[in-house]
Structure formats: C-alpha cells, structure tokens
Amino acid sequence: MLSTSKKACTVNPLKMSQPIGAALAFMGLKGAMPLLHGSQGCTSFGLVLFVRHFREAIPLQTTAMSEVATVIGGLENVEQAVVNIVSRTKPEIIGICSTGVTETKGDDVEGFIRAIRQKHPELDGVALVSVSTPDFKDAFQDGWAKAVTRMIDQLVLPAAPDVQRHPRRLNVLAGCHLTPGDIDELRDIFESFGLEPLFLPDLSGSLDGHLPDDFTPTTLGGIGVAEIAGMGQSSWILAIGEQMRGAAELLSEKSGLPFTLFDRLTGLSSSDDLMAWLARISGRPVPLKFRRQRSQLVDAMLDGHFHFGGKKVAIGAEPDLLWAVGSWLTEMGCEIRAAVTTTQSARLEDLPSGATLIGDLEDLEGMASDCDLLITHSHGRQAAERLEIPFFRLGIPTFDRLGAGHQLTVGYRGTRSLIFDIGNLFIAQAHEPNPGTWRLPEEVMASA
Questions:
Q1: How many Cα atoms are found within 13 Å in the side-chain-facing hemisphere of 315?
Q2: Alpha-carbon distance 413 to 418, whole Å?
Q3: Per-residue pLDDT for 442 more than 90?
C-alpha cells in the first residue's frame, strides 16, 4: 500500500527536484549543455550535488533570473544564456529545464525558443529542447522521465512506412536508477548477443570517469543528436524501469515498433528473463560466460541466504530503485520493514512491504527503529548512526564514498555484488559467542 506523509513540512529531505533529474538526463547526450531556467541558487545546488557524487566536472548553466526578470519575464535571460553558451562552448544540444520560480511566473519557454531562432539564425545547427520541470511538484525520477520523453518528441524522426531497419540495432531507454557502471554492464551483455545498443540517455559515455584527451566545456560523451534522430530505424525498443513507460510508448508510436519494458534487472529471475528475451530477438544462444555468471550468482545466493534470512530492512530511494532492490531483498529472505520513496509509481503498489510512504528521511528513521539495515543515499548516514544499525549507501547523492558512479546492481554480476556487499554488512554485525555468553544467569547459579 502506497501512502503520502501528512506532515506540514519536510524535515530531512530524501527527495531531489525535477530540474536536476532532467539536467542529469541531458548529461547523457554528447556535446550537451543543460540549462536551468531559474535563479543561480537552483543551479548551484544541482552542480554541487553532481560534482560530489560523480567527482567529475559537471556542465550546467543557468539563466540567472533576478527578482525583476522573474516579474517581467525571462525571454531576455534565456536568449542571452543560449547565445553565450553557443558562442563559447559550441554544444550540439542545449537542454532547458524550468524551475519553480519560472513555472510560477508562467514563462512560455517554447515561445521563447521560436523567437530566439527567428532572431538568431546562427543557432540553426544547435538543438534546443525544453522540458517543464517545476521543483514544487514531483521528484528527480519524474524530471528524468519527462526529459527523455521530450528528447524523443523533439529529436527522433518518425519512421517512414518503408523504412529500412538496422537489423541488429536495439534502442535502450535507461531509467535514472541505472548508474554509468550499470549501463556499461548492459552494453556488454547486449553486444555479446551481437546487438548494437543505443542508450538514451547514456551516462556511461559522459560520467564514467574517463579522462578526455582535450578539455571540453560540454559533456564528454554519450549518445549524439544524430543517433537519437535515427532511433526510429532500429529493430527493437527496450525500456528499463517503470519511469520509462511513457517515453517507450512515444518512441513506439514514432518508430512503429513495439516495446518491451523490464521493471527491474536486479535478481536471478529478472536477469534470466532478460537473457531469454535477448536470445529470442537475436536468434543466438546465451553465451557461455553468462551461464557461468548465473552459476556464480546461484552459489553466492546459497552462501548468503544464511545471513539475509529474516533480516529486517529499511529502504529510502526513488521508486524504480526502491522496487528493484526491495523486491530482490525479499527474494533473498529479508523483510522490508520500512520503505520510503519520493513520488508516485504504479509498481510500488506491489512492493512486498508492510507500508510504502512518500516521505522524507525523518519518516524513514522513525520506521526503521527495529531494523537490521538501512539503505538510502549518503544523507541517511546520521540516521543510521542514531539507530546504531549498518548503513548501505545506494542512489544519488553518494558523496562520502568513492566509486558511486560505478556501483553495479544489474544482471548476474550486479546482483552478486549486492549479495557480497550487503551480506558482509550483516556478517560484521553478527555477535560472536564468548565465555560470557555461555555463563548461566546469577539467579540460576545461586539456586544451584
């Protein structure tokens, strides 16, 4: 059952805003510059958050709306920002994400873009995509999903009835719960079946931590605008995460292809389903290396189930991440005692949890008092200390540990890694017997 907290205010936020979710989606495109249409503070917050999580240079600009500009309207600010970005950084695409202040004013950003293009023909070679992401509603996952849907709407060319399909090309719509490491793992899986995956967005090309040959003020890599335009000529569509359903439906409509949606790729059964689907569409048997990885996962499950069985877990995460990890933990024998998320999702109605709440970290802490493990992003570390229970960092932002961008949660190898990482936390908390454990109570000794 999914319910919403009735508190008057958020005390310790779990949720992150729509604009930064949309901005991160644009960072999965090659030569991109996300632009937040709002005050400088909105952009500074997102910039710091992403720098601390990925530990990389983050391309993110602002229209720097002042009080006066907000009242009068933001056309001049958007125009100046777009022209300056194009002249100085030469991007392939600018993704314009609205914020609460400009949404409250009611700025017509689509109208702004038309006026700017008429006035500046030199911008014809640059894609300008705007997405409505007011931060006073919805959450990070919603902003990501809306941005991907707008990319498809604005950039993908409709497929002609007699289009020549690329026989091995696979469109993959990746949810925000997938890390660059997850996307790298999935690319390896797809290519092992002889497929050519196009990920939208592709954070593995832009935020995977590689060192470029030359400095660039825009994103370092990712999927290009021309590749997005040609996605209608692919042969299959795969969406990962319930958040990608709307984008998959739109891409299906523009390409004439049906889509397949996997709500999660964490766990043995979901990984098996993915392998069976890939074998079917590719016409190839599952490669031996994945058969071996499956065997290793089953062995890890056997080794770990002694430590997972009966454990009570509290999780706070975006809906698709909560669904993937929570469902897998239940399969391992854990009980999801507390589940807190940030926004609505149809999948969470089926989450095997006593109650799922749209709330904050204060709610999660209050529900987790008798749990054996707390799972959320780095802002949950103080709650875990107060509760004196193990803490597993998962999601954005993770700023007090290295390698957050390469954390692996999908497929056989990702699931095995989760078993080892979380299982070791349970083992570390186990109480070893000692002579004091064996000693009879004093009252029993006295009556003997």
A1: 32
A2: 9
A3: no
Nearest alpha carbon to residue 419 among 338, 318, 325, 335: 325
Q: How far is CA 193 from CA 196, 257, 349, in A?
A: 9, 20, 34
Q: How far apart are CA 186 and CA 410, in angstroms?
A: 8
Residue 14, amino acid: L
Cis link prior to 397 (omega < 30° from 0)? yes
Summarised one tens digit per residue, pLDDT across range 142-178 is 999 999 999 999 999 999 989 999 999 999 999 999 9
Environment class of 235 (CB within 10 Å of its CB; exposed 0-12, middle 13-18, buried 19+): middle
Q: What is the pLDDT of residues 104-156, one digit of tens each?
A: 999 999 999 999 999 999 999 999 999 999 999 999 999 999 999 999 999 99
- Residues near 194 by Cβ (< 8 Å), separated by ≥ 6? 168, 282, 284
Residues 49 and 140 sit within 8 Å (Cβ to Cβ): no
For 270, the token pair is: 């979901």
Do 95 and 26 form a contact (C-beta atoms < 8 A)? yes
Residue 180, preceding bond cis, omega within 30 degrees? no
Asked if 231 and 253 count as a contact pair (C-beta separation under 8 A), the reply is no
Exposure letters 58-68 (e unless 16+ CB within 10 A, then b): bbbbbbbbeee
Q: Where are the alpha helices (DSSP H) in 156-256?
A: 180-192, 203-206, 225-229, 245-255
Closest C-alpha to 419, from 242, 248, 319, 301: 301
| Beta strand pairing call for 93-98 and 32-37 | parallel
d(CA 101, CA 311): 44
Q: Following DSSP, what letter does each residue of 84-128 receive, concatenated?
A: HHHHHH--SEEEEEE-HHHHHHT--HHHHHHHHHHH-GGGTTSEE
Enumerate residues 6+ apart whose C-beta is below 8 A from 192: 287, 289, 290
Q: What is the pLDDT of residues 20-61, one digit of tens each?
A: 999 999 999 999 999 999 999 889 989 999 999 999 999 999
Domains present along the chain, CATH in parentheses: 17-138 (3.40.50.1980), 169-290 (3.40.50.1980), 291-429 (3.40.50.1980)
